[in-house]
Write a structure and sequence with these properties.
Chain A is α+β, with helices and mostly antiparallel strands. Chain A is built from 6 helices and 5 strands; from the N terminus they run ααααβαββββα. Helices cover about 45% and strands about 10% of the residues of chain B. Chain B folds into 3 domains: about 220 residues, 3-Layer(aba) Sandwich (Rossmann fold); about 80 residues, Ubiquitin-like (UB roll); about 80 residues, Up-down Bundle (de novo design (two linked rop proteins)). The chains are: A alpha+beta, B alpha/beta. The interface between A and B is large, with 35 and 47 residues.
Chain lengths: ~170, ~425
């Protein structure tokens, strides 16, 4: 347990366990591990002297903080009006079809999570999506499929190939 | 070719350096009059003098509401001397279709910092915070670098320019929540809490960050401050209209030939902006509607193409300038589908604190979904309109109050289109 929480403690230390930095602490621990566990929340609560319920309440409020494990790659497609009128709906359907899951879910092999996001301020090149922290613009259904294929290829070359094949 | 013509026609105050200087290099900013206004203010002007100059300039808040900036500052300056004051830069730009603040921060970060320091000097604040939305990682990186470069040269920090005045700036990232652009929700989030709005009054100018008097200004507003101090308020008043001096930065999108960021004097009409800066409608199609000010903005028809775009003129026409987003829609646009997508945004971003917004946005979305699918009856449309009015008047904060605006304005100008989708 202590080892698992070492990274969490480091983040808390960096912010001097300051209650005012709670959102930043949660976000940084989240980015470290992809999501927050109950143990993370518990540790943050103890060290910032806050009730667990309050830490949970803050963590559950923000869209960049996840209380569920997400896939190895997280797609966040902008679904707001400027991207929608630029062809976002077709991209949305192509992504669901390509990954075989509806928005809001993670593939069974835990490689991909498909989420939506509100505007990310890249409207001039809409429709746009974020894959992890990278932004891709001027999307078409074909381009979206190509991007997924590129990530799949890179994953196979970089690290252990996934038996399920993604 | 089209693009270079477009650029040469712009009047650039806020964006005059963006794109031409290296945002990572403070020396390029200084070489173009950077920190000159701050040095001049600290050396030759009193805080009251700076405040008066901003008041005289007629600068209005560029976040959407158009509140007089000098007046806001004076509310904070009036507070009792024992209180700690704060300057907050609202960089939580999340209004769909708006990306002007991102490009100002990434193109000319020191302009924002210098504006904050001048605000601090004017109202007696020694600390400033930039609340930047969580998704804008590059902006954050550029701003943090800019703060440390300015501190190294003593342009920010303790005893700046040897004047005895100190001003420190912190950069704070959000974690994804549209409602945090509302100033009191922003303050809650900055204090490490859920980003839900506070009751107003008391306004942040009286009780803001840490319960102390606080100026909350938008990025674009702050980027206007140094040019005003440098060139004088008369210079500023000569740009734009008498009631809304200066320029406005717009992010123009949709069915125009050249989408992107433009800066034009206040009072320029939408027709001029589309023709001169947008290179006309894409494919020569006819203009049908525009949404001004992002998702919470008004939908306006072709008859309003010649209304001057400034806060007062737009208000008198029943429209709003808002954040400066201009979504241009041609004759092929499905207004019912557009209304549905806009409401989906509000339903998703409602913070849940108050019932009218939490429940009302969900009910409006359901009604719009039935309309979109062609299964709605007349009663659904009547109910949509009724709920929209309730949500607008009874929601706790600006998010819920603005959520019905696109629906009600779309119904005002394109009612037949909604009626034609009813099931009989």
């Amino acid at each position: 347990m202590e080892e698992v929480l070492a990274a969490t403690d480091r983040v808390i230390d960096a912010h001097k366990a300051d209650r005012e930095a709670l959102v930043e602490i949660l976000r940084e621990v989240n980015d470290e591990n992809g999501h927050l566990t109950r143990d993370d929340l518990q540790r943050i609560a103890e060290r910032t002297n806050l009730p667990l319920s309050e830490v949970y309440s803050v963590a559950s409020f923000y869209s960049l903080i996840s209380l569920e494990p997400l896939g190895r790659h997280v797609i966040r497609l902008c679904q707001d009006a400027p991207c929608h009128v630029a062809g976002g709906r077709e991209v949305r359907e192509a992504l669901e079809h390509e990954l075989g899951i509806p928005f809001g879910e993670t593939t069974l092999d835990e490689q991909w999570s498909l989420l939506t996001t509100s505007c990310i301020g890249a409207c001039a090149v809409g429709p746009v999506m974020m894959v992890d922290n990278d932004i891709f613009g001027n999307l078409t259904p074909e381009k979206a499929r190509e991007i997924i294929a590129r990530y799949r290829e890179a994953d196979v070359q970089d690290v252990t190939p996934t038996p399920q094949g993604g | 070719m089209i693009r270079s013509n477009v650029l040469s026609r712009q009047k650039r105050v806020v964006l005059r350096r963006a794109g031409s200087i290296d945002p990572y290099n403070i020396e390029e900013y200084i070489a173009e009059d950077g920190y000159f206004a701050l040095g001049q203010a600290l050396g030759e002007m009193t805080p009251e003098g700076v405040l008066e100059a901003i008041k005289d300039s007629g600068l209005q808040g560029r976040g959407g509401a158009g509140f007089p900036t000098g007046l806001k500052w004076s509310f904070v300056a009036q507070q009792s001397a024992e209180k700690t004051r704060y300057i907050i830069c609202n960089a939580d730009e999340s209004e769909p279709g708006t990306f002007k603040d991102r490009l100002i921060m990434e193109g000319d970060p020191h302009a924002v910092l210098e504006g904050m320091a001048l605000a601090g000097y004017a109202v007696g604040a020694n600390e400033g915070w930039i609340y930047i939305r969580g998704e804008y990682e590059m902006s954050r990186d550029i701003l943090e670098r800019a703060v440390s470069q300015a501190e190294e040269l003593n342009l920010l920090g303790d005893d700046m320019f040897g004047s005895g005045f100190s001003f420190h700036i912190h950069v704070h990232a959000g974690a994804g929540a549209y409602v945090c652009g509302e100033e009191t929700a922003l303050l809650e989030s900055l204090e490490g809490k859920r980003g839900v709005p506070r009751i107003r009054p008391p306004y942040p100018t009286v009780r803001g960050f840490r319960g102390q008097p606080t100026v909350v200004n938008n990025v674009e507003t702050l980027a206007n401050v140094a040019p005003i101090i440098l060139n004088g308020s008369e210079w500023f008043r000569a740009i734009g209209t008498a009631r809304s001096p200066g320029t406005k930065v717009y992010s123009m999108l949709g069915d125009v030939n050249v989408a992107g960021l433009i800066e034009a004097p206040m009072g320029t009409t939408l027709r001029e902006i589309i023709e001169l800066h947008g290179g006309g409608m894409k494919g020569g199609k006819a203009f049908k509607a525009a949404q001004t000010g992002g998702a919470s903005g008004t939908i306006i028809p072709a008859e309003m193409l010649d209304v001057p775009l400034d806060f007062a003129s737009m208000r008198e026409s029943g429209a709003g300038l808002g954040s400066g987003a201009l979504l241009i829609c041609d004759e092929d646009t499905d207004m019912v589908d557009l209304a549905y997508v806009l409401m989906r945004f509000f339903e998703n971003e409602s913070c849940g604190k108050c019932t009218p917004c939490r429940v009302g946005t969900a009910q409006m979305l359901e009604a719009l979904d039935r309309l979109r699918r062609g299964t709605a009856r007349r009663a659904d449309l009547e109910r949509l309109e009724e709920i929209a009015k309730y949500v607008g008047v009874s929601s706790f904060c600006g998010l819920g109050q603005a959520a019905p605006v696109p629906i009600l304005t779309a119904l005002r100008y394109f009612r037949e289109e909604f009626e034609s989708r009813l099931r009989h």
